[in-house]
Amino acid sequence: MTTLVVFTVVDVLLLVAGLAFYLYVVGTQLTRIAADLEECSEIVRRILANAEPIMPGLEQINRTGGVVAGALPLLYGMAEGIVAGATYAPEPAGTPRPPAAPASGRRRSRLHETVGYEPVP
């Protein structure tokens, strides 16, 4: 019966040691979490302090946003009309194309001005 008592005492000691280790690990993790939460709390306080000057202007910002949001359907309709009017429609095949003209009109040489000659208009 002495062996049974010794094994029981050792078993209880191992159980207590395991629980103590578990509580130590959980305690250190909770301490780290508490430190992180404290830091987050400080960051939130700083954000709130930085946002204090903006608060009075929020009503104006929201009002302007409401006006813009109200105008979006009208703008969308106008954009649809522009896109419908500007959509490219290819010419039927076999239609002869006129020669391309320069976009800027007739080109004028400036070489005369560089040598001092000015033609009479």
UniProtKB/TrEMBL annotation:
Residues 88-121 are annotated as: Disordered. The chain crosses the membrane at residues 6-25. Keywords: Membrane, Transmembrane, Transmembrane helix. It comes from the Bacteria. This is DUF948 domain-containing protein. It comes from Nocardioides mangrovi.
